[in-house]
Amino acid sequence: MYKAVFLDFYGTLVHEDDLFIEEICDRILASSTVLTSTKEIGRYWWHAFSSRLDLAYGHDFKTQRDIEIASLEDTIAFVQSSENPRELSEILFEHWQTPALFEDTIEFLGAIQVPTVIVSNIDRGDIEAAIQHNNMQLNSIITSEEVRSYKPRADIFQEALIAYNLQPFEVLHIGDSFTNDIIGAHNVGIKAAWINRKNKPHPEHCTPDYIVYSLTELIPMLKTTS
Fold first, then answer.
1. Record's SUPFAM superfamilies (predicted)?
2. pTM exceeds 0.85
3. What is the pLDDT of residues 35-49, one digit of tens each?
């Protein structure tokens, strides 16, 4: 029996920003002066973002907002686009603060009987705004911003365990990112459930403890006995 649940937020409880990323890539392509494609723009942008995220640790920590703007600046310069990176980044930031809930989120949160802790890479201000926007009753939040470390590094999971006086075997972490959530949780000995909403192929280098396609599949194991 688990004593607590750690939950990723975007892609797990609320919708990710995929559609807005596509919109931004389309706009960059429309004003680019080099021969490219939205797929190539998206790939370059993701590499620029991920590289900065990997380096953002401890004294070198940068917020997701700062990393997003910098990676967009790199991408726009690389494809010689006339778009304004700060204007485009606001499209993402607005979504981060006002994301839509997945249909199974409310049922899941209402049915489980163990404490929940949000463990997220997104900046605290954006998480809190999103929770308020959706009228969610979630008060326990650990973000990379206060830990100064991003998933899949172990720091954020360890901080959550310490903050709530939990042992790794007492917790189940649920998330949609195989690298950030499954590998990240396993790095500290926490069992992990992969919410695979898009039916992605299973990577061979790591095995989740559970694979589900809806949060409601996890409800039976997260109810306490009377």
1. HAD-like
2. yes
3. 999 999 999 999 999
